[in-house]
Amino acid sequence: MMTAPTSYLYVPGDRPDRLDKAFNRGAGAIIADLEDAVAEENKNLALDTIIRWLDGLPAKHAPVWVRLNTGRRQEKELHALASHPHLTGLFLPKADAARDVEEVHGLLQRGGHDLLLAPMIESATALVNIHDIAAAPGVYQLHIGEMDLAADLGLTSGPNESELLYARSLLVIASRHAGLLPPVAPVSTEIDDHDSFRASTQQLKRMGYTGRDCIHPTQIRIASEVFSPTTEEEVWATEVLAASSSNHGAYRDLAGNMVDEAVLRRARDIVASTAKDSSR
User: In the chain, which residues have pLDDT < 50?
Assistant: First the structure.
């Protein structure tokens, strides 16, 4: 399974000017949006705009996803987009149960299409059904839509966002249990408060997230920095792995810390992530 980007940038599907600039923003992946970012009267325009934009993309580019609508519009969008060679996958908003994913996957399979699927967890029902959703066919990675989730739960988040910890942890656990990549952290509406965005992104990294959805280009750099290994982490991982070759089982390193298989696994992940970044 390929390694997921550290940043995804949402771009409204009815804004060709923003779509044309999307790949210049530094995001690891682009999400062309047909859902919340587009007014109801512009939905058809957005679909046509995204298709024209996809048609004009070069052979090589960052992964491109499209967030579909729900309900009757979704099938129309699927038929229009499923065969496009420049499309990586589809975001499925408000995926409340495995059947929401299975229906899309079935339509794609019957048409001979093999797009990746990213269900969005945005309700209490989705949280209850999350293990089934994560295990549904075609699922690549889970994303969390916290604004819709908070509205569904009647939840108001405080400064440290502790009210969302349970839901956030549940995505990490379900993803791991299903053998998926770690989930992607939610968008933040704090566009100008970079310190707050960085702090919340660091907290989400500590929780097990490995990337973040962004709604503004200024958030991309912060997300990429947070989810990329620091120089200190790279040095530590290299030294730990080098020392492990001459030790058997758990051992004490020069700093007096125990090193066992769990520590070595983290070190391997850091080295692998560093290798991925250097190959770009």
Answer: 1, 278-280
